[in-house]
Design a protein that fits this description.
12 strands, three-stranded antiparallel sheet, five-stranded mixed sheet, about 5% helix
């Protein structure tokens, strides 16, 4: 709870004067719970799984659910809704993660996901963190390869398109 007191005779910027003392008490409610995965990229190298950030405010714990889309279901997942579901993916991890942070302070908790999943995990994954009053989802492709594609068209002939693709190492950017 906070209290504000203005004495009589206090002046405002534009010359106004407080004639009688003014006093009020009030409380500021807690900030709304928020949670988000710190990584915003779609492609992560394996080394990024040792230190993945969960940003949170006023959330004490989250349920982490990791789903893997098998290669044979990629076409259905790409053509379906945004989220992976029981038809297109398999749950490979369900775990409650405790979070520490002061009330109303944005905090990041670092999670070693690599230690929670088998070392052979690869492919398209969906990570979802669900906390009381907040949730966040990221779809990621765990790989050691990065693809860059550039599309160009002939001026005046947009139907004549050219696509060039480069495959690069995720950690070294070597071709």
């Amino acid at each position: 709870a906070y209290s504000v007191r203005l004495d009589s005779g206090a002046t405002t910027v534009d010359g106004g004067v407080v004639l009688a003392p003014f006093e009020r008490s009030f409380t500021v409610s807690a900030r709304k719970p928020t949670v988000s995965l710190g990584s915003s990229g779609r492609y992560l190298p394996r080394t990024a799984w040792n230190n993945l950030g969960i940003k949170h405010t006023n959330v004490e714990a989250v349920n982490l659910i990791v789903r893997q889309v098998p290669p044979e279901n990629l076409v259905f997942w790409l053509g379906g809704p945004d989220a992976a579901d029981e038809r297109t993916s398999n749950v490979i991890l369900r775990k409650t993660i405790p979070l520490r942070g002061d009330p109303d302070v944005a905090t990041t908790t670092w999670l070693d996901v690599a230690s929670l999943l088998p070392a052979t995990t690869k492919g398209v994954l969906e990570m979802k963190v669900i906390g009381l009053g907040a949730q966040s989802t990221s779809r990621l492709m765990l790989t050691n390869m990065s693809l860059v594609a550039k599309k160009t068209a002939t001026p005046g002939k947009p139907w004549e398109q050219n696509v060039k693709v480069w495959a690069l190492g995720m950690d070294s950017s070597a071709l």
